[in-house]
Structure formats: C-alpha cells, structure tokens
Amino acid sequence: MNTTTHPAVPAAPSSGAGDIQDWRPEDEQFWAQTGSKIAYRNLWISIPALLCGFAVWGMWGIITVQMLNLGFPFSQAELFTLTAIAGISGATMRIPASFLIRMAGGRNTIFLTTAMLLAPAIGTGIALQHPEWPLWVFQLMALWSGVGGGNFASSMSNISTFFPKRLQGTALGLNAGLGNFGVTTMQIVIPLVMTIGLFGAFGGEAKALIKDSGWIFGKIKAGTPTYIQNAGFAWVLSLVPLAVLCWFGMNNLKTVTPNSGSPISAFLKITYLYSLAFVPSIGMLYLYLPAPTGLGLLNMWVAIPLDIIAALVVMKLAAFGTMKENVAKQFEIFKNKHTWSMTALYVVTFGSFIGFSMALPLAITVIFGFIHAPDAAGVMQHTLKNPNAPSALTYAWIGPFVGAAVRPIGGWISDKVGGSIVTQVISALMVVASAAVGYVMMQAYGSSTPEQYFPMFMGLFVLLFAASGVGNGSTFRSVGFIFDRQQAGPVLGWTSAVAAYGAFIAPVLIGQQIKAGTPQYAFYGFSVFYAVCLVLNWWFYLRAKAYVKNP
After folding, report:
1. What is the pLDDT of residues 443-502, one digit of tens each?
2. Which of 107, 137, 242, 470 is least enclosed by beta carbons within 10 angstroms?
C-alpha cells in the first residue's frame, strides 16, 4: 500500500502493511489524526517479535543448567562457553542490524529477522536430543542463536523512527522493556515445556534427570523424564504466526528508507549483512576459545575490541551500490563524542541486564548447588552436592522479570525529569549493590551451607536488575534528546551492539572467577566500572558546564 499526500494535509490512515511515503511525527495534527495509530500498531507488533528474539538468544542460560542436570558429558567451564558464545554472537549481529532499517525498511527487516529465528530454534531442539554429539555442535547452535540478539538493534532503530521526540523515552522503553520479557518468558517457559511431551512422537524421547532440577513452582526430582529438546522446539509455535503478523501488519517508512527496493532485494541485503557478521565472530572465537574448539591465543579484553573492529571493517569493505552510501552515513555517528559516552552508559544498563541474565542461572547452580568445604589436606573442595540447594530454574527468572518490568517506568520518569539524572541515581545504586553481591558470593563460596546466603544474594541481584532496567529507559531517553532524528536510530543500534557484549563478558568473568575460587572479584570489578561511568555521566550531562544539559 502506498500512502502519499501533500505535506500540509494529514496522510490517510494506513490500516495494514506496506510503504508509507509521508511521515511527519513532529507535526501535531498529523500525529493526532494519523501518525499515532500507525506508530502504535507497529510498536505492538514489534514487541512480541523482539520478545521471541530475546528468548532464542538467551535460552542457553537455561539450557546449560539442564544439560548439567541431565549429565551431558561437558565440564562446567565448557557449558559457560555456550552462554558466552551466544552472547558474543548476538552482540556482533547487532552491528549490521543497526544498519538494516535504513537499507531494507522496517517491515522487511522485522519480518525476515523474526522468521530467521526458526533456524536456531529447530536446530537446537535437534542437537539436544543427542548428548553424544561433540561440543562444537552445541557451540554452533549457540552461535546461530545470536540472530535473536541482533534483532534488538534493528527493532529499536525502527521504532525510534515512528515516534516524536517527546514520546521517544516511553515508546523505546515499552519496546525494549516488554521485549526484554523474552528473557523472563524463556526462563519460565523452557523449564515448563521440558516437563511434557509437547509434540508427541514428533518431538523425540525424554531423558531422565540425574540431578534435581526445577521450575517456578519448585524442585523437580532426579529421575524425572525431561524433554530438553523442547527448549528449542517450543519457539516454533510463536515464531510462525509472529512472522505472518509482521509481514501483514507493519510498515516501511519511505522517509527513512527511500531506496529499500523490492522485498526480495531487501531480504537479500539483510541476509548478506547478517551472514557477514558471523565471519568476525567465528574468527575471534577460534582465537579466543581454548583447545580443542579454538587456539586459546587471546584474552577476552583483546578479543572483544578485535571482534568489533573486524565487524565494522567487514561492513565497510563489503558494502556496495546504495549500501555503500548508507553505510558511510551510518559511520558518521563515530565522529560524535556523545556516541562514545552514551555507549559506555548503555553498557552500565543493558550490558549489566543481559550479562547477568545469561550468567545468573549457572552461577546459582555452581555456587549454591554444592557444599564448599576443605578436604583432609585443607584444600577447599566444591564437588559435593548440596541437598538444600535452591534450584536455579525456580529463581533465575525473577531478576530479569523485574529489570524488564521497570524499563518503561524508567523511560516515563526520564521523559518527565531528564534521562541523565535518572542514569546518575541508578549508577550510584549499582556501585553499592554490585560490591555487596561480590561480598555475599565470597561468603557463600566458602561455606558448607551456602544456601543461608541465598536470600541476600537474590535480593541484591533483584536490586541490580531493577536499577539496570530503569537505567535502560533513561539512556533511551537521553539518546533521543541528545541526537537528531537521523542519528538517533543508528546510535541506538550501535550502543546496543556494544552493550550486548555484556552477555559475553559477564558469563566469562564470573565463570573464570568461580573457577579461581574468587567470584567476588568479578563483581568488585563491575562496581569500579559503574563508578567510572557515574563520573562520566556527570561530566558530560549534569555538571554546570556540561556538553549537553540533560536536564
């Protein structure tokens, strides 16, 4: 459908999918008569599509716990690599995803990237039926799941183009906050669907738990039949109708994407750019991961910048035709110092949210699922099962649920009082809460009854999630306030890409420090980083001579 009008006259309402030629959200008459209906329709379809993206991306945080409970022949360290691989893949995919809306159009992009999630969902379901398969198969599925992580950048970039600046914080907070419920939804749905033969004979056979597991209503005893493959297969039930809804209900804005071309050419551009994103991820992981998967040559702090730089270079060199011009326009954001300050602040908020979401289930299992006591030689051991252990699958969903729920609130408050002052308050909270989590983890990891520390551990983690959720809303509002409409979308995509590396950093850091017997050091490090960013936020946006006063 084409909607073309004279600029002085409100455009005719668009009741379904198609291209819209005239889009003026800052025009109050246009917004009231036409724009708001179209914008909110695209938002309400975008939210569940993004939710499923988060669910597929984050599902390895739960799957690895159940693999441990089912006795898959992999070590705890190897299982942590699965969540880390999914994390870095999703982060890298966000770099090209932030370019897609202006190259291919919103409707085309959200439809195809939602449909793409079917591949890792089905592939993971098949792989989980074969515990005897080598580790690299599961690592490949985790890598492929990163498509779901990339979807956030394109979704946020798309929604930012539909709404006037005065509603950006609320709209983006709703899209991201309710979309982030994909993490919570996944953490609730996966343990549930694993208890039943959801697809009958087509879904494969059950396997018996060798360790206690759980779901939101409590423990599931060892010996219970479990359909772990449903962790992947279950998403097919929502992805198919959602893809259809995206195609028939969303719009391409020609004011944003004048040269998207036909749907087929748009799909080819999206597939091409997404395929390119896997190249630096695979190369970096090969250099980073230890044998037998990789060479183990790089540490994380070298690997991540190299991955980001490689992804940008690949994008720059591989672009052709009109894509080359669009990429050049997108790269202009790197000349703006506020791109870099907002990137750091978004790592504080979203980086913490997704990183802790990925790492928390396995961290609960490892720290509270075992008795920590010295052997006869006085060496601390962490191998004896704790009969009073809380189940990670019963509690891990609470933190992400709170973080996602308060995101729209953070956007709404920031629309009223200013994004940077909200960011300042939550950063201070996170400095204290992170240091406290580290101290409690240290106490638990040196105790023969670690469960006594669990209520305090969870309470502090919920506080961290709540602060990061509110901060997400405030950073969205700040981006909309600081940048013009042409740059706001790409900046949102870029900052979300870098922040998503938290999904790689947190599992790796926490896993390494647990292995070293000093889990507290990971959280003390997070606390120091939050303190540095608190000063950065004040310097750029709150001091008397701030670059941009916000407020």
Report:
1. 999 999 999 999 999 999 999 999 998 998 788 788 878 888 778 777 877 888 899 898
2. 137
